[in-house]
User: Fold these one by one.
Assistant:
Number 1:
Amino acid sequence: MDINELLKGRAGCACGKNHVCDIERVEIGSGAVNFLPRLCEGYENIVIAADSNTFSVCGARVFELLRDKTEKLHVFEQDGLLIPDEQAIAALSACVSKKTDLIVGVGSGVINDLCKYVSFKKGLPYFIVATAPSMDGYASVGAAMITGNMKTTFSAHVPSVIIGDVDVLREAPMDMIKSGFGDIIGKYSALNDWKLSALVNGEYMCDYVYNLTYETVLKTRALADGIEKRDPETIKTLTEALVIVGIAMAYVGNSRPASGSEHHLSHYFEITGIVKNRGYLLHGIDVVYSTVETQKLREKLLALDKIPENIRAFDRADWEKHIRESYGYAADGVIALQDKLNFYDPAFVSVYREKWNEIRDILREAPTSLQLCEILKTAGMDYNDFERFYGRRVIDDAVLYAKDLKDRYTVLWLYYTVLG
């Protein structure tokens, strides 16, 4: 699957859309960072952004290559994890002048999101030099930011150029490599949720994009035994997979092919971790363990031959109490979001009853939780680490209340209504 062929898009898709992706070039391979000067021809006032970790890994090299064109080098000096919040946005925005014609980010998730968001707001192109194969957002239009104490994915734009130097990527911390692998394996859950929402909620779905993403998941699954070995070909293929999934998101204009209930749980752990000052795992690691967790929900639902006669009515006061307990000072934003939506509408129950057999057929398509755990074991990951890290109480709360963070229908809503 040639990434640069995918960049050409797909006109006249059977779904009724013309799929486009505005990325101009992707370079993934050994020594790929050396393409940067040629790709930056035509730009004269470049802002380079990195954090204290990524600068030492590759940022200094990028600065050396672009020194004559660099208007400003900004290195975030963070204590712990860099958070893509209002303060970080303001710091990067302040580096951009009227002369700036390009932003180059050196990093992975947070740096990519910050550069994507600020460049979009400033009307500038940006390049990303990846430092870890850790997540699928490099090629997506979405920028996952934390604003107003809420994890919000803003629609922005894709980078003009993505560079993934395998010599750099394979030296990333092992947890970040596993995070990227986990983010792709998590698409088993996301794709199942997409198909479920198309049936239950009438959401748009594209079979071509679905199949493109699914094939990428299968190809990544086969990499499991090369992850801990830092095998160069494994790292290259994993990075390509992460970019391809980002292109799939660009094709539909949102993260639906790649983000469902498993991401909602991950966002819950991150937001409540920040609010309550407790730790949380890397995004893709949270995602893949949450994929096992959401699959357990599907298996519980599959055990039902039919929807129970007595479904618990939605108790607004009880729900709001738990939302405030879970989200603390961020609760008002969560409540306001759900007040705009209508996923608690009891009319969904009649849809569930009418389409239960079709729903069960969809739920059966995902790998079992045991199969997922075996894939993870091969890649050196243990689901029990997830339970030990968060504890069942936090995980169970996430299952019930992570859905409220987003405006997207997933299996979490079905489970909450039927068995929650």
Note: Residues 179-418 form a domain with the Dehydroquinate synthase-like, alpha domain fold (CATH 1.20.1090.10).
Number 2:
Amino acid sequence: MAAETQYTAKTGMVKISTANSNLDGSGNLGTVITGGSNGTLIKHVIIKATGTGNASTSQGMIRLFIDDGTNIRLLKEVDIPSTGQSSTDETFETILSLDFKLESGFVLKASTQNANAFNIIAEGLDFAYYNASVRPESTNYTANTGVSTITTQNTALDGSGTVSTLITAGVSGSGWNGLAINSINLKGYTDVTRGMIRLFIQNTGTGASNTFLLTEVPLYPVDASATFQSFQDQVEFVSTFQLQAGYKIVATIESSQGESIATVVDAMDWKYPS
């Protein structure tokens, strides 16, 4: 962030207790926090059970989702153990370090596998810029959260065939200098068999001549359940990966079982004051 970046604390909080076993974003979800005008940096998410008695929580899952207004995609699952509460035994709690940049208007949501009561608390920071004294060389960032699904069955390594777009560098408007990608989160919301996810860079054209294989992520067999997390992996880059404005990250999956992989890209577009 530039020296003129100003942060404003945003604390997102929601109570959830309605059982929801779905991994595809359907069913009852609680709204935790919404991205501000430039985006919101979500530093941590705290999960705290609030039920009373010897079985205040049963073994299950808390699930976090990203909602872009049209699509809802699974971001993370958190295992919840069976925990009793008393005057001398505390309820379950955990804290997740996310450091995730949520795009403006996008929403972090949460659900619980079982009908147990939880508080979901997000430690967030909205960011803006002090325009009165912005230096010409300063950098302005705007969160660009890519939310998509990889379902395209494609065996090609040369970029030919149908691909799924995960994110495009440069959000609405002009003057963007590129996209800084921190990570690409991959989360299954169906059972997964062995196979391969392939990520490509695609320039402003389409087809094999404009699409270049970037990396591959092996799929390993997972049968998700109420107490066992679905497939998850994350592509991380040394520092960040700077993608040229207008270019895309696209993907395919090689498997014969018709898996669906939810993708969430943690990234920010950047430009300089005119």
Note: The CA atoms of residues 17 and 234 lie 29 Å apart.
